[in-house]
Amino acid sequence: MKPHRNNSVGGITLHTCQTCRRTVPYRIYAFIHICGIVALMYHHVHSLVTADKTLITSLLLLADVVLAFMWATSAALRFNPVNRSEYPERYVAKPVEDFPKLDVFICTADPYKEPPMMVANTALSVMAYDYPSDKISVYVSDDGGSSLTFFALMEAAKFSKHWLPFCKRNNIQDRSPEVYFSSKLSWSDEAQNLKIMYTNMKTRVEHVVESGKVGAEFITCDKSRGVFDLWTDKFTRHDHPSIIQVLQNSETDMDETNKFKMPNLIYVSREKSKVSPHHFKAGALNTLLRVSAAITNSPIILTLDCDMYSNDPVTPVRALCYLTDPKIKSGLGFVQFPQRFKGTSKNDIYACEYQRLFVINMIGFDGLMGPNYHGTGCFFNRRVFFGPPSNLILPEIDELRPDRIVDKSVKTQEVLALAHKVAGCNYEQNTNWGSKIGFRYGSLVEDYYSGYRFQCEGWRSVFCTPKRAAFYGDVPKSLTDIMNQQKRWCIGLLEMAFSVYSPITYGIKSIGLLMAAGYCQNPFWGFWSIPLIVYGLLPQLSLLCGVSVFPKTSDPWFWLYIFLFFGAYTQDLLDFVFEGGSYRRWWNDQRMWLIRGLTSFFFALIEFTLKTLNLSTFGFNVTSKTDDEELNKRYEQEIFHFGSSSYMFLPVTTVAIVNLLALVWGLYCLFAWREECVLELMLASFAVVNCLPIYESIIMRKDDGKLPNMVCFSAGAVTFVLIVSGYFFFK
Cα dist. 354→82, 304, 359, 576, 591 in Å? Predict the structure, then answer.
């Protein structure tokens, strides 16, 4: 890499930025690849005019247009990738007064899919930051309104008085108790006693979750009993009053040594009503914005998913190296850290690390206007939620202004009354919340959409990638869960793609061509299914019917296909390896793109189309983060778990069967009659190798994780219909 720029505060360099060395070679290759794409388009158009296979050529043209568009979005993010370094050790030398207050938002919604102990560990990990404790306020949004989650946080507040001083005295790096006590370390007597305390707490919480209610024996004081009385028989997750409880107060609560103040820990469950829109996670985050403004109004905000615990205690200081830099802070909206995951299988069989989404694309965005927001691990300047840098949009009441200094105690009646008011289910009516201020409504992927809108308003962002992961999260270990999660993301992204704020139209005007092109990559995920279906079925069916749709090896156009195919894949592999990925993980990532394209993306496109035609409605399901012993074992062995019967696996199973038949028939024709069909055989071979887990499931497996028989039989029937139809079509 070559030096790009240094940034100093008060003469001290806090961060540097370097341009990646591969930038120039990538730009040269991009020009060559574009020439190849133009030549291919010419070939298709010429074939349409001169040949008689009009429909076949039209389908190939459509597929290649989509592929060219998606490649262009990737090329935009390869134009100027950068890597940054920051120096938190230089910032911590500053006096405590120079550390701004920090509000942390943690969102959860279902105690059975997102276990309360997991939420508690995430909260404890950020409460234990190497940061002035009395300047940290942790807000936990419980959108399920569960007494089980509330109880877990009450227990976490008690435990934190012992955990926080222990971590800071011993410079513990793993600040999540579950992670620390699961490690195979030799502990001191103090650590052993603390482990017993944690184990007892965990046992109590898990017992409560298993029984489904907080028994009287676990409620130790009258004050707590009064809070639990709020959960009446009429209280449901979709219809209940707001609950805001200060479980720990930095103004009064001290640690076990009685020397240091504790962070604020505040439980928030907004008011819900079946007749009022709640806007899913974006609505919950906006409630936290207002409630935190009423109570602490810290200038810096960290948003976290409940399963994304802190892995580096100096992470907030890393973010401050950018957010407090006077040269950039006036226009800097947020600092995004990459999502990292623990518990992935050796070769990441389901490609759950999303290396391209969370790392490769991010360093590309960072060289333009900065990365997009990914919903977790992001430090915000509170000002970003209130309009463009040059035009502050005031909220409806002065108490919510981003620049207001809170001068009242956290637990005063006036402060808590205001907090309950702004957490009401009808509070946002006739306000700018969700449209001009706060997290933006209009898409199921509120994170990507909101980050995009912030940057369209003129805010910049920074991608911070320290060597030690800042946060670690859990990955879903069921293929069905992954497909459903991806389908939900894809639908939300399609909403963004076809909104008035589409990157193709609004984006180009607001953030420029390259940035808008980069932002187009994810919103148009659904269209990946088009070339996958065309290239996964059309050449193979033509091969089975004795017809060739591609040029022969003697035709110069044959080599153009070879160049574009291998060129794009080689560049993708280099991206993956340069950012720390392995060859095996890259291959699994390619396979999962095939599977996602023929499952999640395909059905997301259908569902979005039906919704647009008012023939269907969207739902929102929380991805399960619970553990299943048999599922975990299969995942660690890198055996695909297809799970219960799901219609989503029908297209990919059909493609797998068609390609296997085409490969066998093509090889027979090649050796028996010397018929030349190299490109068709290459595509079939590529698909067959990628579909090996499907063949294994159909032929060899008998366990409950195999492909359901109904899916296999249905795919076989569809394959038969396709081959018969193809015979009449091609003949």
Answer: 19, 18, 8, 11, 13
What pTM was computed for the model? 0.94
Residue 158 burial (10 A CB sphere; 0-12, 13-18, 19+): middle
Residue 524 CA to residue 605 CA, distance in Å, equals 10
Beta bridge partners of residue 398, listed in sequence order: none
Identify the active-site residue in 110, 142, 143, 572: 143
- pLDDT higher than threshold 60 for residue 1: no
Given this model, what pLDDT does residue 729 score?
80
Band the pLDDT of 2: cuts 50, 70, 90.
Answer: very low
Burial class from Cβ neighbours inside 10 Å (0-12, 13-18, 19+) for residue 346 reads exposed
Q: Per DSSP, what are the bridge partners of residue 437?
A: 433
Measured in whole angstroms, the distance separating CA 560 from the mean position of its chain's CA atoms is: 36
Mind listing the pLDDT tens digit for each residue in 155-200?
999 999 999 999 999 999 999 999 999 987 777 889 999 999 999 9
DSSP state string for 666-715: HHHHHHHT----HHHHHHHHHHHHHTHHHHHHHHT--STTSPPHHHHHHH
Tell how strand 264-269 and strand 378-381 pair up.
unpaired
Q: Give yes or no for a contact between 141 and 269, defined as CB atoms under 8 angstroms apart.
A: yes
The confidence band for 490, taking pLDDT boundaries of 50, 70 and 90, is: very high
Going by C-alpha positions, the residue among 534, 544, 554 that lies closest to residue 667 is: 544
Tell me the average pLDDT across 411-427: 95
Name residue 332's beta-bridge partners.
460
Q: What is the pLDDT of residue 65?
A: 97
Residue pLDDT, tens place only, 241-267? 999 999 999 999 999 888 889 999 999
The first and second tokens of residue 347, run together, are 């070769």
By the 8 A CB rule, do 261 and 169 touch? no
How many helices and strands in the chain, by DSSP H and E?
Answer: 26, 13
Alpha-carbon separation of residue 98 from 92, 258, 378, 681 (angstroms): 9, 24, 21, 65
Partners of 302 in the beta sheet? 104, 379
Residue type, 265: L
Rounded to whole angstroms, how far apart are CA atoms 524 and 536? Answer: 19
Give the torsion sign (CA, 524, 528, 531, 534): negative
Residues 551-555, mean pLDDT to the nearest whole number: 89
Q: Domain map of the chain by residue range?
A: 101-476, 525-730
Tell me which fold the domain 101-476 belongs to: Spore Coat Polysaccharide Biosynthesis Protein SpsA; Chain A (3.90.550)
H-only helix segments in 477-528? 479-497, 508-511, 513-520
Beta pairing, strands 102-108 & 300-305? parallel
Which residue numbers belong to the known binding site for UDP-alpha-D-glucose? 113-114, 143
Strand partners, 304: 106
677, burial (CB in 10 Å: exposed 0-12, middle 13-18, buried 19+): buried
For 194, half-sphere exposure in the C-beta direction (CA atoms, 13 angstrom radius) is: 23
Burial class (CB in 10 A: 0-12, 13-18, 19+), 355: buried
User: How high is the mean pLDDT of the chain?
Assistant: 92
For residue 447, indicate whether it is catalytic: yes
Query: Of 307, 366, 447, 575, which is the active-site residue?
Result: 447
Residues paired with residue 106 on neighbouring β-strands, in sequence order: 140, 304
Tokens 């568009």 identify what position?
69
Q: Which of helix, strand or coil describes residue 633?
A: helix
Rounded to 5 degrees, φ, ψ at 101 are -65, 150
Shortest CA distance to 312 belongs to which of 453, 171, 218?
171
Work out the pLDDT band at 626, boundaries 50, 70, 90: low
How far apart, in Å, do the first and last CA atoms of the chain sit?
57
pLDDT surpasses 90 at 672: no
Name the residue among 624, 662, 387, 271 with its Cα closest to residue 632. 624
325 is catalytic: no
pLDDT higher than 60, residue 229: yes
